[in-house]
Amino acid sequence: MLSVCCRLLCVSLLLVLTSCIDDATFNNPSVADQDGDGLLGLYDCDDSDPAIGKCEMGTFWMFSEQCAGKGDCVKGVCECTALGFVGATCDTCASNLTGADCRDCASGWTGTSCDICPSNYTGDNCDSCAGGWTGPQCSDCPPNYDGANCDVCAGQWTGDTCNECPSNYAGPRCDACAFGWEGAACDECPSNYTGPNCSDCSYGWTGSGCSQCPANFTGTNCELCANGWTGAACDICPANYTGVGCNACANGWTGELCDDCPSNWAGPDCNVCANGWSGPNCTICSPNWTGADCDACANAWTGAKCDECPPNWTGPQCSECANAWTGGACDECPSNWTGGDCSECAAGWTGTLCDQCPANNTGADCDVCASNYTGAGCAQCAPQFTGAGCTECAFQFAGPGCAECSELFTGPDCNECKDPAYTGATCSECTDPMACGASCIVCGEGEACDNGQCYPTGEVGSPCQTSDDCGGYLSCNLGANWPGGYCGYLATGLDGGTCLSHAHAKQICLGNIYTCGTYYSCCDAMQCMRKCVSDADCRSGYVCGFLGYSGYSGDVCHAM
């Protein structure tokens, strides 16, 4: 009986193996394991496929346990027949089942057959939370998810797992506008923000909320430089501004923008006084300047700095005419002044003010010589005048204004002698050098000249013995004072009388009844004696002196 059973088992095993072997190809059927499933080809229905032929065979007499009692071995593979079991040996619960008998729904599976994977689960084994579900039962929908199936990104969350919050959103729920963004969709970047993420303060805004506009900025959007600030960062205070806040005009600048340089200031930086202005604020117009803008030279000042006083002006303020200049422009030199600087008296004028016209000049401009003067500077007497003041008529002139010729002169210029017998500057010289005396008479033949008169041959003082020796006009005087005889004049009266006696002579001389003439004196000797002042008045051999005779009038020539 036992042998029959063994034979039947062997036959069955042989059939099985034959069936498997019939479907497999082996390089070495009894040894090889070509698919690496742990079965030799002898026991593997398909040694080229590791998923086939994995019936774990023990001894031939343990066949009923090869598939854990939950299935059949078909062609070397366990085909699980028990509900819920799977696996190579049918000892594992299906992925949607669990429990000792694989009758409970595994993981998230539901349904009568545990074949329904609810919406909050996913995966081949329904063992992963679907969408955004979390928690042990995948029943918690985190704040970054929304929707009935927790499969929609809540708020503004994005990304495959709704874990990306756009740059314009922020907050734990990604439902607040980030940094500077605003608007319903947080897509509006306000004017005080800028940048691709609206995360930078625009213009001049500062602070945590870009809400503070610094003192150097201004404007509705804090987009303008305040006061005088300039530059991209409004941090440059230009030269025309000053102050901590760059809010005051520097130097002399004025105006709303400190860009007006008043007329009393000058220079690129409006920091120097213009024209004639001076003082700390350039508000004082210097004395040598004038005008509403202190831009004109005052009085007569000239030059770029109005500091040059022309030579025809003078005074501390250059407001007075220098020297003798007159006129509104001190450019008129009066006729009584002359010279390049009008500082010299014109011809004729004298005095400190050149206002005195000397006696030798006349005329409105003192430029005409008075009638009694002539020559350069009228310093010479006119020909008809003479004397210290040229007030005396010259020798040849006479009459009122010395306009007539004197008795000795004639001619248009009174420079010709009226009597042709005379010549010389004073017509006192005889034309004929042989003329006798001042009368310039010419003595005739047989006559001799004595003291300007012609007498017959014989001269006063000539030696004589008788009157015949003395000519018809002289008598020979003999006496102690005239030794050897002396030709002399007889004392004759105006009627031709002769001194006849001493008494008669005395009467004639002292009584002045008769005279001996201009050059002679009557004496006791009854002779007309030659009057003299010095010996030069006497002829040779005689001297001038007083003889002591009664009747002499002064000194007379007498013998030595």
If you had to describe this structure to a student in words, what would you say it looks like?
- It is rod-shaped, with a radius of gyration of 86 Å.
- It has two helices and 48 strands.
- A hairpin with a 5-residue loop joins strand 3 (about 85) and strand 4.
- The strands form 23 sheets. A four-stranded antiparallel sheet has the order 43-44-46-45.
- By secondary structure, it is mainly β.
- The fraction of residues assigned to DSSP E strands is 15-25%
Average pLDDT metric: 75
Termini separation comes to: 249 Å
* Principal-axis shape: rod-shaped
The assigned structural class equals mainly beta
Please report the total strand number as a whole number: 48
Strand order of the largest sheet: 43-44-46-45
Q: Which range best describes the helical content: under 10%, 10-25%, 25-40%, 40-55%, 55-70% or over 70%?
A: under 10%
The helix tally amounts to 2
Whole-angstrom Rg: 86 Å
How would a textbook summarize the main sheet?
4 strands, antiparallel
List segments where confidence is low: pLDDT < 50 over at least 5 consecutive residues. Answer: 1-28, 56-64, 491-520
Regarding quaternary structure, how should these chains be classified? single chain
